[in-house]
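Researcher: Structure prediction, please.
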Amino acid sequence: MKILLLEDDYTYNESIKEYLEDRGFIVDSFYDGQSALEAIVDNKYYLAILDIKVPKLNGHEVIKYLKDINNKTPILITTSLVDIDNITIGYQLGCKDYLKKPFELKELELRINTILEAQYNVNAEKVKQLENGYSFDIATTLLKYNNEIVDLSVKEKELVEFLITNSNTYCDIETIRENVWEGKEIHQADIRMYIRKIRLKTYKDFILSSRGLGYKIVVSK
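Model: Predicted structure follows.
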């Protein structure tokens, strides 16, 4: 799953990003509120982790703008601010949780998983069982074959995740482009190239195709 991180402290930013990526998350990190806001508006994230005291736009301003445009990305606030007024503002604006600095990275991971499970209903069915010994973890976007991780690029993970989210149903090329590439210009041949690469790393029928219907991945449970 793709997460956005807004943290202006370099050490915090790097350590959080590295920790979450080691656990299979895709992390886009930013050091100022304006850059983070532009990224959230232009891309799909399953969660945004926002510090409050950051340059250009603070975290509260970012949340308020997202609320004004009806962006539903769930928000986790991390901050050294401890007064109840600042905490209250965050919750009133719609953040899902609040984590006070300094914090343990394991605690951050637990808070993230709690939000994702509640928001996307991935608790009981977090790991999707596919055919021929493959499985896919919705929370970490890790594809495994007999418990061994299959090495996928970021975009390959996003493509597999989208097809599994819409499992057992054919998705046409245009739908894939709109959701995986956020509507950005990409030739159909390039999307088919990504599908071929995933098949080469798995097996021929890992992604099924049907002329005129599109592509799908079969989930057994």
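Model: The longest helix spans residues 105-120.
Researcher: Thanks, that helps.
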